[in-house]
Amino acid sequence: MPSADDLAASRYARMRWNTPLSEEHGALLLERLAVPPGGRVLDLGCGWGELLLRAVETASGSDAASVTGVGVDTDEVLLARGRQLAAERSLQQQVTFLKQEAATWDEPADRVMCIGASHAFGGTVAALEALAELVRPGGRLLFGDGCWERPPTSEAVELLGEDIRQLADLIEQARALGWRVLHFSTADQREWDDFESTWLAGRQEWLLAHPADPSAAELRAELDARLREYVGVYRGLLGLAYLVLAR
Ligand SMILES: C[S@@+](CC[C@H](N)C(=O)[O-])C[C@H]1O[C@@H](n2cnc3c(N)ncnc32)[C@H](O)[C@@H]1O
């Protein structure tokens, strides 16, 4: 494989999913999401849909065809990985991956997931409003969104933007828009460190294997800058809140 293709493939290679979340925490969220037998699960901004696949797998139990899912994302490379994962787990009849702008999706589902993708709707408030139209009556939404763990520095706001709230404000915002909060939890420090490390690790490994590649110097500088930003600017400040919401 040419080194450029190799590099592209390495980008997400070390990540389980594209959010700070441990196996145990992921299992807890799926328990709280409580996908019903025969239910339909929709994941907007799904990436390669690992949590969606687990939601369908877990809820289907022995009745392998009982739950169906659809993942929506704009990145074809990630969607292809999702389709491959579905095929490897014999879930290709149950879970489909579609390339589409999340904000244009209009088919409601029993359970909706939107993790780290509120920007696809124009921000947190717009996402919580739009997602209300996509959860069927009696349904639930798993919403993962950034939050400040404590008052941010001006440097962190400059880097990460204005549309991030402290957890209490995020919860109040959801309530103000008519949602009831069935569950909330935040990513802990180890989940964040693992997320940031695995986000860089695939490309770190590529660099070690191709130290003299023409693009190595630029990539090395990019990875160093990202790590410096994380540990120097937002580690311990930026959180990720997982809310299970209903209305
Ligand atoms: C931080 S990742 C989270 C992925 C996934 N939810 C997970 O937890 O692994 C955000 C995802 O949103 C997708 N995305 C960004 N803009 C989008 C849009 N307008 N419509 C659909 N997906 C979008 C990106 O391609 C990316 O896969």
List descriptors:
binds S-adenosylmethionine; 247 residues; 9 helices; 8-stranded mixed β-sheet; alpha/beta; single chain; Rossmann fold; 8 strands
Let me know the largest β-sheet.
8 strands, mixed
What small molecules does this complex bind? S-adenosylmethionine
Shape: globular
Under CATH, the topology is which? Rossmann fold
- End-to-end span in angstroms? 50 Å
| Distinct helical segment count | 9
Radius of gyration: 19 Å
Task: Draw up the topology in text.
Elements: H1 3-10, H2 23-33, E1 40-44, H3 50-60, E2 68-73, H4 76-88, E3 95-99, E4 109-115, H5 124-132, E5 135-148, H6 154-160, E6 165-166, H7 167-176, E7 180-186, H8 189-209, H9 216-234, E8 238-246
Parallel strand pairs: 1-2, 1-4, 2-3, 4-5, 5-6
Antiparallel strand pairs: 5-8, 7-8
Helix pairs in contact: 1-8, 8-9
Bound molecules: S-adenosylmethionine.
How is this structure best described in words?
The protein has 247 residues and is an alpha/beta fold. It is globular and about 55 Å long. The chain has helices at 3-10, 23-33, 50-60, 76-88, 124-132, 154-160, 167-176, 189-209, 216-234; strands at residues 40-44, 68-73, 95-99, 109-115, 135-148, 165-166, 180-186, 238-246. β2 (68-73), α4 (76-88) and β3 (95-99) form a beta-alpha-beta unit. Strands 1, 2, 3, 4, 5, 6, 7 and 8 form an 8-stranded mixed beta sheet that branches. It contains 9 helices and 8 strands. It has one domain (3-191, 231-246): Rossmann fold. The site of S-adenosylmethionine has 18 residues, from β2.
